Amino acid sequence: MTDQKFQPVDSSVTPRYAEIASFMRAARAELTSEVDIALVGVPLDLGATFRSGARQGPAGVREASRLIRQVNPTTGVAPYRMANIADIGDAPTHPLSVEKSVELIQDFYVKIHAAGAVPISIGGDHTVPLPILRAIAKDGPVGLVQIDSHSDTFDEFMGTKYNHATFVRRAVEEGLLDPKRIIQIGLRGTRYGDDDIVYGEKTGIRMITMDEYEEMGRANVIAEIKRVIGGGKTYFSIDIDGLDPKEAPGTGVPEPGGIMMRDAQMMLRALNGIDLIGGDICEVVPSLDPTGITCINAANLMFELTCLAAVAHTVRKK
Amino acid sequence: MTDQKFQPVDSSVTPRYAEIASFMRAARAELTSEVDIALVGVPLDLGATFRSGARQGPAGVREASRLIRQVNPTTGVAPYRMANIADIGDAPTHPLSVEKSVELIQDFYVKIHAAGAVPISIGGDHTVPLPILRAIAKDGPVGLVQIDSHSDTFDEFMGTKYNHATFVRRAVEEGLLDPKRIIQIGLRGTRYGDDDIVYGEKTGIRMITMDEYEEMGRANVIAEIKRVIGGGKTYFSIDIDGLDPKEAPGTGVPEPGGIMMRDAQMMLRALNGIDLIGGDICEVVPSLDPTGITCINAANLMFELTCLAAVAHTVRKK
Amino acid sequence: MTDQKFQPVDSSVTPRYAEIASFMRAARAELTSEVDIALVGVPLDLGATFRSGARQGPAGVREASRLIRQVNPTTGVAPYRMANIADIGDAPTHPLSVEKSVELIQDFYVKIHAAGAVPISIGGDHTVPLPILRAIAKDGPVGLVQIDSHSDTFDEFMGTKYNHATFVRRAVEEGLLDPKRIIQIGLRGTRYGDDDIVYGEKTGIRMITMDEYEEMGRANVIAEIKRVIGGGKTYFSIDIDGLDPKEAPGTGVPEPGGIMMRDAQMMLRALNGIDLIGGDICEVVPSLDPTGITCINAANLMFELTCLAAVAHTVRKK
Amino acid sequence: MTDQKFQPVDSSVTPRYAEIASFMRAARAELTSEVDIALVGVPLDLGATFRSGARQGPAGVREASRLIRQVNPTTGVAPYRMANIADIGDAPTHPLSVEKSVELIQDFYVKIHAAGAVPISIGGDHTVPLPILRAIAKDGPVGLVQIDSHSDTFDEFMGTKYNHATFVRRAVEEGLLDPKRIIQIGLRGTRYGDDDIVYGEKTGIRMITMDEYEEMGRANVIAEIKRVIGGGKTYFSIDIDGLDPKEAPGTGVPEPGGIMMRDAQMMLRALNGIDLIGGDICEVVPSLDPTGITCINAANLMFELTCLAAVAHTVRKK
Amino acid sequence: MTDQKFQPVDSSVTPRYAEIASFMRAARAELTSEVDIALVGVPLDLGATFRSGARQGPAGVREASRLIRQVNPTTGVAPYRMANIADIGDAPTHPLSVEKSVELIQDFYVKIHAAGAVPISIGGDHTVPLPILRAIAKDGPVGLVQIDSHSDTFDEFMGTKYNHATFVRRAVEEGLLDPKRIIQIGLRGTRYGDDDIVYGEKTGIRMITMDEYEEMGRANVIAEIKRVIGGGKTYFSIDIDGLDPKEAPGTGVPEPGGIMMRDAQMMLRALNGIDLIGGDICEVVPSLDPTGITCINAANLMFELTCLAAVAHTVRKK
Amino acid sequence: MTDQKFQPVDSSVTPRYAEIASFMRAARAELTSEVDIALVGVPLDLGATFRSGARQGPAGVREASRLIRQVNPTTGVAPYRMANIADIGDAPTHPLSVEKSVELIQDFYVKIHAAGAVPISIGGDHTVPLPILRAIAKDGPVGLVQIDSHSDTFDEFMGTKYNHATFVRRAVEEGLLDPKRIIQIGLRGTRYGDDDIVYGEKTGIRMITMDEYEEMGRANVIAEIKRVIGGGKTYFSIDIDGLDPKEAPGTGVPEPGGIMMRDAQMMLRALNGIDLIGGDICEVVPSLDPTGITCINAANLMFELTCLAAVAHTVRKK
């Protein structure tokens, strides 16, 4: 049915609860040029300013993703038939230094990029996208779709430039992201002040608060995403706290009144065909997730990102 | 106020937290011809292919259903004034064999059917409806309203015909269900392949995916349910995973992006008057439900099914 | 930026997880006439008829409210710049007598009222608003906005006049509330009978069930709230079970099919400018809240009530 | 094998997880003179001064006691072959008044006593033994074995005479307990002051603190229990907080450094033959017991008390 | 420091929380003759008669065993320097049939045995040792050290020969175990009757109840183990419910008053040098283990078994 | 009864569940020279190498310590009558840098030391004692009693000198601790290698493993503690993982087979009269503590340390 070498564990042969957990039961493999889409964990929470524990995010999502199957129910995309997809393990991190971790992560993604693979990652706190972008967007600014309750455009936090509230600003400053091609969806939550929003407005980031999301409706938001990112290379970053807390209680900084999983799924499915160069889901904290719903939702979003990547891979091959 | 013999515990006399838990505090009784509506537990999880624990479903729902009162807030239906409703205990099952359990369950429901009672059941995994239908639909195919994230129309799983993913197909094959009078609501979730969907299409089952549900809207879905089942005898089966995982994390195979309790309640309330011959709620796993919301929602859905059964009972008596 | 004396802990200096927990990190202070808005805990659960544990409500919300910041994302209201807001601790209660607790609470709020402060309270079960209203509405009946799944207009429960199901009726009888200026939003849940609803209809309380809420839509509900309460003094009481159980599993009597946090937030934000004399959030039970979402949502609603109070304070000062 | 009428559910026929939960799967029956040992729930937490929730104690223990079998592994006692043992349901209580509850409980146990049954009860907070003793020890003072971390000999708490810290003192004052025949085991925990201990010393209660327990060793403690209670009528009350918190985290006032289940079991087993007139296990709070260990241990202690009662019953019959 | 090929992940380079979870961070490998000690998961719970969920045992222990290091603190044994140890994944099982699962498991262990590896396994319910013994003890009866609260010597359960209460009897009947060389430690728990104990006595199994354990003391129990198993081939099976429930709440049938982890560790450490042909830890149910202590303890016991296997391997090589 | 100015909340007036949580309900106060014993939180987890979350330790222990009373049940010490004891809040920390945090903590304790107060602290991970010792032991090396499963004498971890596994070595190197006056109790757990133990042996640290603890018995261990620390100034550091995991599951690196709370309490009580200059309890992780037992035990140990400090204060005053 497919000529792709890497195939996930077949759940009609090996029960879902059996065998070592890999992301979505994908084949485990070392990084080589055979890998088209690399599923990667980035266990880091040293950039978190409130509740820590996102370092267990990759472990939690690997376990929860046992129930992911192989075909997208809305789009029909079957990614494992379209690309070689493998769980290549976790990026190295340093358990005691966010700065060293950022360097180690960047080095790892440089290799992924060199191998020609598109990375779909599970964080880790939302510091994680910065070293990824440094590795895969170093040839010029790319676009960004960001589902998040916070804009992550602060300049610093307590004198620190690298943390989970600053990655967008850093990436714009470093020329990795084109602010005109950034769209942020789900912004809300009580606020410290205006510093982050002013920065976004000044640089031309398209910020869609929950108020605006609700006024526009999902269909118009999807159209707006397409308009903002246009046809260029695009990265997709999901802070799980962009979802409503009832969808994702297991996160560091939950903010009520957010995006529903159904809407997140449909937004992602509507973006088939974008030139995706990578994606991540961050801020999953399993120790705060006794019902497991956060990890389950993250696993399902990982599948959606993987479908987007598989379609983009197919387009590129043509 | 009523001449029905069986009345639930009166919570204005006996506090909700007191006394042995029966379903919705209904009277406990042996099965006799006096019972019009039989509340039944079916503790079984040997048909589950991922996470087990639904064998504790009846115990969990009995405990959670202490807070159910006696009058439907939307329809005004007061079932205990319309029919003799009793918790008749659990169907016998075999803890080590799904096949023997299916036989034991069938035998038990044959007796319920012979006594003239309509069973409203709490599973147990979704193997449970098959032996129920064999007992109560043996005189000819009936209709089915199914709220579920999966169509349960697989032919087999690992060589096994009887499990929680095949009951609809088996029941159609055995002439218990009329596929033209089956409607499935809430289908979604990543998929293995097309086998189940193809079967549904081929036999004429009306499958409403979440995509279609959303496009149609609840009112049109209700109209479509009525159209499909028409005026004939109808069974109602709710796999609790038809609800969104945030409504029902305590289940074996949660699938994000599902039906909200509010919508489930309103669909059920809109079907007053259908010729209901039985109903069930399956796949509740209390050990995966630390907040208790799954059991609470199942208890409330049990009340809705009981209201439908009470109205149907009244219609039949006329 | 502000000349208000009482300022909350600055989370850009003191991390959110640090220091003793006060409501929303507000300044802790003894009650004096300097306090404009008093944040108060009322630890009581002796009025609860099903699941107890609301006595830990204030402790749970203090801890969860560490993540509240200072500016409202929709309205831009920055309450700490507009009024002196302080956590003045808990009202005294008696751990073994609901009657004595009601007296102690009333005495405490008499002092708050005398000091000229508007109280925003965290209960405690829903007996709590009665002694508050006795203290702050003693000069004539006021209006009430009530988000709740139950109308709390029973006459008594097992012979007892003071409990969590009667406060509205008592307050109307005592001339504290004007029934024509009461609006209840979110009513639902299976019912005992008609006693409470009949009382509401007879006295002219505007009861919006979930059925009606859904038919009207949020915007019309907001308009109706404004119409009912008009320009007079108004109290705002939120029983956390007015929210859907997936938003608030940690409560004594959860009722599926309720109000979403997003809608609660937007209703509150739309009422800027009402003449708020106090508000409360009751029935938070931390021991039933393993994900913490109930406490987090209560904390966010407390911020919304505080914003309303700050605007009202500013209007009054002019 | 036995001529006793009431037999528990046979777990080799009906799986442990099946059927409505009764205490230890005992037969459910109305109170009649056929019942020799009455298993009773007393759902009350209005006497608790710290963490509430013991009102769910009977429900929690009924569910957890599904795994109790029929023969004591140490003594070989098989109580169901020796006496008619039935779960007669819960004592009535008032959800809003500890005083009324105390009266209702007393009335219920008067009936049990009149029927000639020995009650083994699951509370409820530790106010519960007082009304029980008023009913079953009204003919003269009896002895008491009390496993507890607190002596419960305070005179009052905040002006209240009836609560979970005073039952022993009240019962002595009322002539229900003979202080010279009271032995308290497991006393510990930081203390308010000396009031309770002074009372115990003054009246001649034998108080064994954990310090003394450790010095004496279990065998000597058992001998001391026998010495103190002698041959007369004896009641046995277990506050589950007498156990170490790792054995019983689900309780209102846990005190580290307590008694192990193994020791509690062996103490109880060593007392075969005492003239037991009743026993209880109090202060089980299921909402604080996520691992379930507290309810499981309480269920096992209930079996031990039932074995003592069965032996005493057999002795009396001779 | 070692010439062994397979080395675990080095936690001083790769943080404990990083990378895909394998048993004790051991190298993952396909089964070949290079593997001396095979770490295996056996995900099965179809043999459980009360609470299911042991199918997730291997997943839970893999995750929890991230904190196992490389040197035994008491004996100094460093197994990875002594033998090639690898996680070879899970034995195949059938999710719907205990009989088919038993066959699949046996086939898998036949291959392990043929490859010359000693298996250390994580179940799965306690049906698991039977197919293992069929594979690795087929050349003659071996000895058994069993830590367990139940003797597992029933003849059948509800007509079923293969389940978690019968493995010892089956294995004796099939000539896989020499009853004279079986020692069972930790027996306790209320009992159904005498069938299992009589069988043990009749066949000469050495049964050490908790009563006898306590009387003998740990040192004498260790001596007795050595005496019973003598110098021959020995298998070691740990039902995690042999531990006290406070050490292992996450299991199907907890029995209070059991063995402490400290004692289990020291018993295992004292058996260095026995001719171990395999070992297992069964009945770990992660869904009932919210604190994680059961999985953590199982992980530590797995390390102890692995140390025994490494010493035995070294002895054999000489 | 006492002339001490700072008194805790009186729980016979203000219920335990009421009011803002401070450590053991102690008076909250700014640091002044009036404070004799300063209760301090140190919210830090950036030095943790496995599971994070100890930054919530102070919040968790403040809440759990509501049940601490005022008199020691074994020694009779009543610390609030002997010294002015206040909760002075949390030491400042930096959420993104362990190095900066160490500096901030040190500065804070310098002020405590200058004010003449003895600090009793709740961490935070076990990096915390180093900056404390730098502040309060800068005049010459002091003794150390350490209850811990790990010796914390590593030289570095992944190139980092300051983390939760190195504080003892750093403090010895810096002349803050006299290795001859260090005693470590409870060492166990699988090991990386010998680096830490060799350091301890070389420098003369008295290391008591669990094996030795068990051989010696508690009384001899207490005697050995007294012998090692002698009469000089002593600091007391408790890593909560020194307790057995069933006493403290809520910690980063649990190691089975550890010290019981009863033993910890009795060791502490036996040390009345030592010249205590400070103490801490570290590594409490509330997010991993669903039963709450870890926080409760930490709260009780805090009381024991406070009693020691109060006695030492009294001795010094004489």
TrEMBL record, chains A, B, C, D, E, F:
Cofactor note: Binds 2 manganese ions per subunit.
Cofactor: Mn(2+)
Gene Ontology molecular-function annotations: agmatinase activity; metal ion binding
EC number: 3.5.3.11
Positions bound to Mn(2+) 2: H126
InterPro entries the record matches: Agmatinase-rel, Ureohydrolase, Ureohydrolase_dom_sf, Ureohydrolase_Mn_BS
Superkingdom field: Bacteria
Family membership noted in the UniProt record: Belongs to the arginase family. Agmatinase subfamily.
Listed NCBIfam families: agmatinase (TIGR01230)
Official protein name in the record: Agmatinase
